[in-house]
Design brief:
Blueprint: H1 6-15, E1 26-28, E2 34-36, H2 40-43, H3 59-67, H4 74-108, H5 119-150
Antiparallel strand pairs: 1-2
Helix pairs in contact: 3-4
Length: 151
């Protein structure tokens, strides 16, 4: 083996099955059972919530994370959820107040100029349409017939 290069020595070492196993270090856990350092992540059920995009998740998802004891950021989720619920309640109160104001206004003045057309406007628009039809449709037809008869 003296004349071999480093790569061939490693391949011979691996082929012979002389690979030592990775040593496992045992650390006692708080529950009193042995746990290796390498498998600590596998046994831990704690997880991270996606804090960078909390606004994208539903209230139900945030509530699930805020009440889950395994969520590492449960306090941040609970704080964000409480802020969001307060903001949603404020916006809902503003919408309800605007709706009641609009209803009171419509009780005082039932005509809504955005959705209803007055009788006067309907009459004037009908007369305008009738006169435009006479000018652009009936008059050219009558003039065409008279011009054909004169030829």
């Amino acid at each position: 083996m003296r004349g071999q290069t480093g790569r061939s020595r490693i391949s011979n070492f691996l082929e012979l099955g002389n690979v030592p196993s990775v040593p496992r270090f045992h650390v006692p856990s708080f529950a009193g059972e042995e746990m290796s350092i390498f498998s600590a992540k596998e046994k831990s059920r704690k997880y991270h919530a996606s804090l960078s995009q909390l606004w994208a998740f539903s209230n139900e998802e945030l509530e699930k994370w805020a009440t889950d004891p395994n969520c590492i950021e449960k306090d941040e989720c609970a704080a964000f959820l409480s802020k969001r619920l307060a903001e949603q309640a404020r916006l809902q109160a503003e919408r309800d107040e605007a709706r009641t104001r609009k209803r009171a206004e419509l009780q005082e003045n039932p005509f809504d100029s955005r959705t209803e057309v007055s009788a006067d406007a309907t009459y004037i628009a009908g007369r305008i349409i009738k006169h435009l039809w006479i000018i652009f449709v009936l008059l050219p037809v009558v003039l065409g017939v008279l011009w054909a008869l004169m030829k």
